[in-house]
Amino acid sequence: MSLAPERRDLIVLVIFAAVVLAAPVLFKPIGAGYPDLLQKFAIYGIFAIGFNILFGLTGYLSFGHAAFLGVGSYTAVWTFKLLSMNPVPAIILATLVGGAFAAVIGFISLRRTGIYFSILTLAFAQMSYNLAYSVLTPITNGETGLQLNQADPRVLDIAFGRDYGAVLPSSDLFGLDMTGYPGFYFCAVVLILCFFLANRIFRSPFGMMLRAVKSNQNRMNYTGLNTRPYALAAFVISGMYAGLAGGLLAVTDPLAGAERMQWTASGEVVLMTILGGAGTLLGPVLGAGLIKYFENIFSAFNEGILMAGFDFLPETLQHAAVAVSSLFVGEGWHLTLGALFMLIVIFLPGGLMEGINRLVAWIGRRGGGGGGEAPATAPQTAG
To answer: Which of 48, 65, 190, 277 could make an S-S bridge to 288, C-beta 3.0–4.6 Å?
Structure first.
């Protein structure tokens, strides 16, 4: 007996929230239980969820989402400098400014579709990167990056009698320092809220309209329905998610640099979404977590760690195993990620979520036996 969609969504949300909040314990055995990495899991999970609202639902592939991530970071740091070290105003303004910037870029870019739309977004992102790196140095501080200063006005903190003295301040939520595990749990709560909002968008009539845009936009246009406002709304929402993620990056580490707006950051979120499963709710979060795990764990493996790992082998085989495996870890971790991405694209076009769904279906067939609900599809042949 299948569950009602509302009840199923509630169960998924509860399980998702439980896993996210228990991440320090659950991920400790694989070496990912420390707060800095967990913060990246949560922040880039938000980034990927937002990108999936655009790409997964409408099919519009943007190569410029790093621009909104960078704008969110700059906005948050300027909020810290001018208003307060409280992260709440920073992430609110980062979300709003990211959405406003996305509205401008989306209004222009969505005049084209397909590869032309992708090239336009990439061009805007590279323009934004170069503006931040050189032209707008009074605002962005160029290649050095925007950082906090003891002389910053912080008018709201001063108005409420908050004095940081001679110490360079860090972001804090009403006195709770946003570093370490408190910073992770702040990001985790925001991730859960973003996941809930994305779920509501997926299940709403607006989400169904976005799927129709992806399915056959030309047919919808022929019926007289203008699809551009829906695509623009999805683009703006996606940009707001990216701005929020950029703001959270500044909350956990109060600085902003132009490198967050490079095209590689835009490509990374595309990989996260495709790797996890575009158009699914959980897929982008899984993809973001997997890529950040590879980036931070596999890249830290060195020859000493590998030698210790293969110390059970004879010396000749040990050196041979280290020589081969060192190609895939340390500086070569991208090779492992590329091979994994290639395998998933070839054998699991729907991403990790397709693999999970296949596994669940296989377990269900093995455990169901001959009873239970009749299959809805035609019998399949063996193999």
So the answer is: 48
Residues 6+ away with beta carbon under 8 Å from 172: 85, 86, 87, 178
Grouping H, G, I as helix, E, B as strand and the rest as coil, residue 313 is coil
Q: 111 lies in a domain?
A: yes
In a domain, 334, yes or no: no
DSSP E strand boundaries for the chain: 146-147, 172-173, 176-177, 255-256
Concatenating the DSSP letter of every residue in 240-295 gives: HHHHHHHHHHHHHS-EE-GGGGSHHHHHHHHHHHHHH-TT-SSHHHHHHHHHHHHH
Residue 350 lies in a domain: no
The average pLDDT across 285-295 equals: 92
Residues in a beta bridge with 42: none
The Cα–Cα gap between 361 and 141 comes to 53
- Asked if 99 and 239 touch (Cβ cutoff 8 Å), the reply is yes
- Tell me if 233 is assigned to some domain: yes
* 85 has pLDDT over 90: yes
Non-local CB neighbours of 51 within 8 Å, separated by 6+ positions? 62, 65, 238, 241, 242, 269, 270, 272, 273, 284
Q: In this structure, how many other beta carbons lie within 10 angstroms of the beta carbon of residue 277?
A: 26
Residue with tokens 């790409």: 55
Asked if pLDDT for residue 73 goes beyond 90, the answer is yes
Q: What is the Cα 186 distance to its own chain's centre?
A: 16
Q: Domain residues for 162?
A: 5-263
CATH code, domain carrying 59? 1.10.3470
**CA–CA dist 207, 209 (Å, integer):** 5
What are phi and psi for residue 178, nearest 5 degrees?
-90, 45
Distance CA 251, CA 180 (A): 12
Predicted local confidence at residue 303, as pLDDT: 78
- Sequence-distant (≥ 6) Cβ neighbours of residue 67 within 8 angstroms: 101, 105, 124, 125, 128, 129, 261, 266
In the chain, the number of structural domains is: 1
